[in-house]
Design goal:
Elements (H helix, E strand, L loop, with lengths): L8 H16 L5 H8 L3 H7 L3 H20 L9 H15 L9 H9 L5 H23 L5 H20 L9 H12 L4
């Protein structure tokens, strides 16, 4: 990774927005974002129309990283069941990090409550893609009702993520994967 001083002001702002909004919430102030990035407010407004646009760009920029975290390392060899369970194993591992605050995309949806906000649009797209992935895997795995199973899996993912992020649930005991295994069995997945 390039050192911070070699990053462009735009990249520094996007990194700062990702870091601070994840740690402190989307209401983090422009002054704090600019200070963290080492960029003037004037420069920020030359690069982005608004803080909202910067937050949305920051979330969009993290999508490849987020997707990579949840993708099975050997998708061709893994079964649909294994690919689904891997998502929850990754969630359980991530939740052990002291800096874990839950799914960044769910947090944005919960905090903003405005479906038209540019960051909400990005977050909703990411969550919808995860649901579509669950549905496709459920269908490939022979689930009786792939739509229902996908909704159930997203509910477990978001609930486990939120509770672990709020430090009210410890996922080290495999609670998420155990719950998902029961759902996969009940759905008739291979």
């Amino acid at each position: 990774m390039a050192s911070t001083d070699k990053l462009s002001p735009r990249d520094r702002l996007l990194d700062a927005a990702a870091r601070l909004s994840y740690r402190d919430g989307v209401s983090v102030g422009i002054e704090a974002l600019c200070r963290e990035a080492g960029v003037s407010k004037r420069s920020m407004y030359q690069l982005f129309d608004s803080k909202d646009a910067m937050l949305a760009a920051s979330l969009e920029r993290r999508v490849p990283w987020y997707d990579a975290q949840l993708a099975h390392p050997d998708p061709e060899a893994a079964t649909p069941r294994e690919r689904i369970l891997y998502v929850f194993e990754r969630l359980e591992r991530a939740s052990r990090d002291a800096g874990y605050h839950g799914c960044p995309y769910l947090a944005v949806l919960v905090e903003l409550k405005n479906p038209e906000h540019p960051a909400s649009v990005v977050a909703r797209t990411v969550k919808d893609r995860l649901a579509a992935t669950f549905r496709a895997e459920a269908e490939r795995g022979g689930a009786r009702d792939p739509d229902l199973l996908a909704r159930q899996l997203l509910l477990v993912f978001d609930g486990a993520s939120a509770r672990a992020g709020a430090k009210v649930e410890d996922l080290r005991d495999g609670l998420a994967t155990t719950t998902v295994t029961a759902l996969l069995d009940a759905a008739g997945m291979d």
